[in-house]
């Protein structure tokens, strides 16, 4: 029976497709943003609202039935029950069957259709847009703050939709139904109700916009606190090494103090709003019941009419507090959504061209044609950078910190877009390719390796989701990672390739993280391989093993290698030396040493046991 009921109730949950993609980027105005986030669920929201209206009308109908029974019983006396048994049974059916059924359907639409679906619908769309941002977007903000804003905004939208459907359809239907019902008793009673509604609207219009502003400020302050705490926790090792726990505590306390002040400002406005509203709520039953009693004394209304006035006025007075609390929550959520819009809606700075295509059968020729880039600042990271790398050629980029080596690799992957010039892959401008298509043709191992808090297997297979266990283990073996992976065990007892690596791979040493990153690149097997200090965290013995593996992996691939330990790149086909955003030397290791220029100076210092302090 329970299983059958759950199957039927599932029907409500499946009325909305919770993960359908959005149309285009998110708008920056509130109403349009709601439309973008909720598109595809409009009919279902309308259905939920319609049932909320029916529930509100059932409240008015209940009051009318009670009034009718009182008047009929008074008129017919003791024989009323026996003479109207059928009607009374129908009335019982209304209270016992019809009204609960409407309530249950309304609960189903709100709790099963809207509740579980609107939040993932909004968040999945927001998340897709955020993931599509360039690296500069994430460089300019806290990761924790962005994540909180996405979840906070989505939750606020879900709450607004649910409360509007659950409360306001019910409230509006109840008020208008009450006006009509009071009009059948005496038009002046409708007038009293209209005046009360106008007073209610005035209070709403006065207080809620001010509450909305304060809510927006409170949401921004809360996000700052989250960002501060996440930043501290993320860098907790550095905090401890520099004995800066007290300083970080002060920074968090400062953010919390500001959040507290915004909370007090918000709460003060809420107290004033609630006091004014409950005072107004008390006016309605006093006015309607008092006036109906006066009319009864004049012989103009019946006892049933007094009962109707009493039920309607006390119900609306109670409902006004309920609705005001809900309205307070709605406007608070709207304030949070508006604050989230500022963070979550910037346009993508890097986008696919309309006619962009994924590259196919890539040979691996890479050309930088008069490339200029400066991260949007005056100083150039690259300026007039021109370099052609033939298919299968191994090229090393060498230079001091800030010379532009890593920038060139990032531009090739379109993590940023060139400010001038162009980059070609097999003769095609990479801006005419889809970003995912371009990056699928390039494997990169960075100096700062990225690990997910997932299993070792999932981390290695990240770029090759269809890889078999045998392929994953083979890649790990070639990257000298298999032995230490076999010895891993996480706090839940998962071992080997099933063991989770911790957030950002914190449970691994730097060398272990780089070996897993190398295994990932080996498994991806892309025609272009970029190595940005790929062996920087390895000891000499392991590095020798990795170099042997890399020699095999690099066979037949176009390779761009960035390294400061020049011994690791001496065997490359060509070495390109950058200085102040330009190429100043290029050639083989032997020819550059013979030229006795900048590269020869680097080599002399390193081979003599001294490392260039200006090198990255």
Task: Give the gist of this structure.
The protein has 616 residues and is an alpha/beta fold. It contains 20 helices and ten strands.
Characterise the protein shown here:
- By secondary structure, this protein is of the alpha/beta class.
- 62% of the residues lie in helices and 9% in strands.
- It is built from 20 helices and ten strands.
- Strands 6-7-8-3-9-10 form a six-stranded mixed β-sheet, sandwiched between helices.
- Helix 7 runs antiparallel to helix 8 and helix 10 packs antiparallel against helix 11.
- The C terminus is likely disordered.
Number of strands: 10
Oligomerization state: single chain
Radius of gyration: 35 Å
What fraction of residues sit in β-strands? 5-15%
Task: Give a quick account of the main beta sheet: strands, pairing sense, barrel closure.
Answer: 6 strands, mixed
Succession of helices and strands: HHHHHHHHHHHEEEHEEHEHHHHEHEEEHH
Broad shape: elongated
> How many DSSP H or I helices?
20
Secondary-structure blueprint of this entry?
Elements: H1 2-13, H2 30-38, H3 42-76, H4 80-83, H5 85-131, H6 135-139, H7 143-185, H8 187-234, H9 236-241, H10 245-297, H11 303-344, E1 366-373, E2 382-389, E3 394-399, H12 405-412, E4 420-425, E5 428-429, H13 435-439, E6 442-445, H14 456-460, H15 469-478, H16 482-486, H17 510-524, E7 528-532, H18 540-553, E8 558-562, E9 574-579, E10 582-587, H19 589-595, H20 598-607
Parallel strand pairs: 3-8, 3-9, 6-7, 7-8
Antiparallel strand pairs: 1-2, 1-4, 4-5, 9-10
């Amino acid at each position: 029976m329970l299983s059958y009921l759950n199957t039927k109730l599932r029907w409500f949950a499946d009325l909305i497709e919770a993960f359908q993609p959005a149309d285009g980027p998110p708008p920056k105005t509130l109403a349009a943003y709601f439309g973008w986030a909720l598109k595809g669920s409009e009919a279902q929201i309308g259905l939920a609202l319609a049932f909320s209206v029916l529930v509100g009308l059932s409240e008015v109908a209940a009051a009318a039935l009670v009034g009718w029974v009182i008047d009929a019983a008074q008129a017919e006396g003791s024989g009323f029950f026996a003479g109207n048994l059928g009607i009374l049974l129908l009335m019982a059916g209304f209270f016992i069957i019809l009204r609960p059924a409407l309530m249950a359907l309304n609960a189903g639409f709100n709790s099963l259709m809207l509740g579980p679906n609107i939040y993932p619908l909004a968040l999945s769309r927001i998340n897709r847009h955020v993931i599509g941002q360039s690296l500069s977007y994430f460089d300019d903000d806290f990761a924790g703050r962005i994540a909180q804003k996405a979840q906070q905004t989505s939750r606020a939208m879900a709450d607004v939709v649910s409360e509007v459907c659950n409360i306001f359809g019910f409230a509006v239907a109840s008020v208008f139904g009450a006006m009509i019902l009071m009009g059948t008793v005496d038009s002046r009673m409708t007038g009293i109700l209209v005046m009360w509604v106008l007073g209610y609207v005035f209070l709403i219009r006065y207080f809620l916009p001010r509450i909305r502003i304060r809510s927006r400020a409170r949401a921004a302050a809360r996000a700052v606190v989250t960002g501060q705490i996440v930043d501290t926790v993320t860098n907790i090792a550095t905090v401890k090494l520099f004995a800066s726990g007290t300083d970080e505590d002060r920074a968090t306390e400062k953010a919390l103090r500001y959040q507290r002040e915004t909370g007090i400002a918000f709460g003060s406005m809420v107290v004033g709003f609630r006091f004014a509203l409950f005072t107004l709520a008390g006016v309605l039953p006093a006015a309607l019941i008092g006036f109906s009693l006066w009319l009864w004394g004049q012989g103009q209304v019946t006892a049933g009419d007094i009962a109707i006035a009493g039920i309607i006025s006390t119900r609306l007075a109670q409902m006004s507090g309920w609705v005001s609390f809900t309205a307070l929550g709605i406007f608070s959520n709207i304030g949070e959504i508006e604050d989230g819009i500022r963070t979550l809606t910037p346009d993508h700075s890097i986008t696919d061209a309309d006619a962009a295509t994924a590259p196919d059968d890539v040979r691996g020729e890479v050309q930088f044609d008069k490339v200029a880039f400066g991260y949007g600042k005056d100083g150039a990271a690259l300026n007039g950078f021109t370099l052609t790398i033939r298919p299968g050629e191994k090229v090393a980029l060498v230079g001091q910190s800030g010379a532009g080596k890593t920038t060139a690799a990032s531009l090739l992957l379109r993590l940023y877009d060139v400010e001038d010039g162009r980059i070609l892959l097999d003769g095609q401008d990479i801006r005419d390719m889809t970003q995912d298509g371009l990056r699928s043709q390039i494997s990169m191992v960075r100096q700062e390796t990225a690990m997910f808090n997932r299993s070792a297997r999932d981390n290695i297979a990240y770029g090759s989701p269809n890889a078999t266990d045998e392929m994953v283990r083979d890649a790990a073996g070639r990257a000298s990672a298999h032995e230490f992976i076999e010895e891993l065990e996480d706090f839940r007892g998962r071992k080997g390739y099933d063991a989770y690596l911790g957030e950002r791979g914190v449970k691994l040493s730097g060398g272990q993280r780089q070996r897993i990153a190398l295994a990932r690149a080996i498994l991806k097997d892309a025609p272009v391989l970029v190595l940005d200090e790929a062996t920087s965290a390895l000891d000499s013995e392991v590095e020798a093993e990795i170099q042997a593996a890399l020699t095999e992996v690099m066979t037949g691939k176009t390779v761009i290698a960035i390294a400061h330990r020049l011994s690791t790149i001496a065997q490359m086909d060509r070495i390109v030396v950058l200085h102040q955003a330009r190429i100043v030397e290029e050639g083989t290791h032997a020819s550059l040493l013979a030229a006795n220029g900048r590269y020869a100076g680097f080599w002399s210092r390193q081979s003599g046991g001294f490392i260039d302090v200006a090198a990255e």
